[in-house]
Design a protein that fits this description.
heterodimer; A: 6-stranded mixed beta sheet; 4-stranded antiparallel beta sheet; B: mainly alpha; two-stranded antiparallel ribbon; 11 helices; 2% strand
């Protein structure tokens, strides 16, 4: 569904991506893992169109998207879910959700989207008239995931949903994301929290110095010493836990 | 007492005019991250276009007002697309491009003045529309012109409010004003939305110019004074805040009018700035100034 080939890019004259190649099959959850400053956010921005890659190719749904403006990529059904802190604080929860449905003006689609958002995240229904700035960190992240769903995309890019959240809250969000994916969403998950990400994902890429360093099925990577040593800091995820998610 | 009411209603109506221009400056500031120094000339251009439209067609005043808003709004969109966008591509605000934009605004103001001078000449032209007889409420007489200005401005502000709160495009405008990068990720056509913001701001400026036409003369240099007053209004209210711009405009108008009436008319122009200084000393962010702006 998404195919990234030899992408090189960066900001200004600073090169950050040194030829990244990866792909996401329909219906799968793929994780892109890496520490700070490894290029994973830059890769995400290149896919969602916020920066243009210098060379290489990004193909989504059979068409090249690496020269498109970001809003046109959203229209093709590839939506980036922002981090929780990037919800609009001065708008109500419902207005934020409606922004997610900006490309879908049809009343029926919007009503359906709201209903879907509220089934995954019932707390948002209670808070719908509240100003977004009054939500907690976890609720903000839920709002951003729900906002991404509003346009009924074919695939979502999830930008560090675990950032700055308590482990219990992260687990709640990952559970909801797992449900969304079971209901047929394709997902590219960009994460620093390797343990959580590997529990959720089917397949994972580890990015280092702007290039893919390791890749493989999530089950294998959980056991992989190289991954463990470079990122997990000794905490190995339990494969059995994957079933409970 | 009649004298006091007269001063207040005059102040309120002029304040509404300042508020309309200040709303435009605030809108452009929140959407484009720049202070638009040619906005006074947009107001002047709007007044002249309204006048020409009226002289050519003899349409009723509200239609002329609306026509001038649309034409000036479109001119604003062209100015933004052709000139400002190239500069703003590399950023606004405190960047080098933001500085270039300030200078470009001043340049645009001189260019627009000269274009108006070439088309309409240096003479102040009267706007031959009468607002009608004064209203009488009890024993207070309200001059009709001022009442109509206040009403028309209120209608425009309500329309703007509804547009921003209730429509899909209005929501997109607020999103772009809040953070452009996130707006892109919502699938919003950001460049188009910026043009809409600029067009709406210019249309409001034109409305102010047409409304004030029948009580003041229409002339090439009318934009200079209003820019400074509207700027003061926007700063007093809190830059970027629309309710703040309205309140600031009304405060400037009333203080100026009362000052001119009770203290001295020859210092009319300084009262607004005395108030500006006082407000900035007490509340540096302006009355409604909150830092809601978020940068990725």
């Amino acid at each position: 569904m998404l195919k990234v080939t030899e992408v090189v890019g960066g900001y200004g004259s600073v090169q950050i991506l040194n030829g990244v190649t990866m792909s996401v099959e329909p219906g799968r959850i793929v994780a892109l893992l890496g520490g700070n400053g490894t290029g994973k956010s830059t890769m995400l921005k290149a896919i969602s169109g916020l920066i243009q890659p210098w060379s290489g190719e990004i193909v989504f749904d059979g068409e090249r998207i690496d020269r498109l403006r970001a809003d046109l990529i959203v229209r093709r059904g590839l939506v980036q879910v922002t981090q929780g802190k990037e919800a609009y604080p001065a708008m109500t929860v419902e207005e934020n959700l409606m922004l997610g449905a900006h490309i879908r003006p049809e009343r029926a689609v919007r009503a359906r989207g709201l209903e879907r958002a509220f089934t995954y995240f019932p707390i948002l229904k209670e808070r719908r008239r509240q100003l977004t700035g009054t939500l907690s960190g976890g609720q903000l992240q839920m709002l951003c995931v729900a906002r991404g769903l509003m346009s009924e995309p074919k695939m979502m890019l999830l930008d560090e949903p675990s950032a700055a959240l308590a482990p219990q809250v992260v687990l709640d969000i990952f559970r909801a994301v797992a449900r969304i994916c079971r209901d047929g969403m394709t997902l590219l998950l960009v994460e620093q929290n390797v343990r959580m990400a590997l529990l959720l994902a089917d397949y994972a890429y580890v990015i280092k110095d702007g290039a893919i360093h390791i890749e493989g099925p999530a089950e294998d990577l959980i056991k992989d010493d190289a991954v463990r040593l470079s990122f997990l800091g000794g905490t190995v995820a339990d494969v059995d836990q994957k079933l409970s998610l | 007492m009649q004298y006091f009411f007269d001063l207040v209603i005059v102040g309120l109506s002029l304040g509404m005019v300042y508020a309309l221009v200040a709303i435009g400056i605030s809108l452009i500031y929140s959407g484009l991250d720049v202070v638009h120094f040619a906005h006074g000339e947009i107001y002047m251009l709007g007044a002249f276009i309204g006048l020409s439209l009226y002289n050519a067609t003899q349409w009723p005043f509200p239609v002329v007002l609306f026509g001038s808003m649309i034409i000036t709004g479109l001119i604003g969109v062209v100015i933004e697309r052709v000139f400002y966008r190239r500069i703003l591509k590399s950023g606004g605000g405190y960047t080098v491009a933001g500085m270039a934009m300030v200078i470009c605004g001043f340049g645009m103001s001189i260019i627009l003045q000269n274009i108006a001078f070439l088309i309409w000449g240096p003479k102040a032209a009267p706007f031959p529309v009468s607002y009608g007889m004064p209203f009488e409420i009890g024993n207070v007489t309200l001059p009709a012109a001022y009442v109509w200005i206040v009403l028309a401005a209120l209608i425009l502000m309500t329309a703007l409010h509804l547009f921003l709160k209730k429509t899909r495009l209005g929501l997109a405008v607020r999103a772009v004003a809040g953070n452009k990068e996130i707006a892109y990720l919502m699938g919003i056509n950001v460049p188009l939305t910026i043009s809409v913001i600029f067009g709406v701001a210019c249309a409001l400026g034109a409305a102010a110019g047409v409304l004030v036409g029948p009580i003041n003369y229409v002339q090439v240099l009318m934009g200079i004074g209003i820019l400074v007053k509207a700027f003061a209004a926007a700063v007093i209210g809190g830059f970027g805040s629309l309710p703040g711009a309205v309140l600031g405009g009304l405060l400037v108008g009333v203080v100026e009018s009362l000052g001119a009436g009770y203290l001295s008319g020859s210092y009319k122009d300084i009262y607004a700035f005395i108030m500006l200084i006082i407000v900035l000393m007490v509340r540096p962010a302006g009355l409604f100034g909150v830092i809601t702006k978020m940068k990725a």
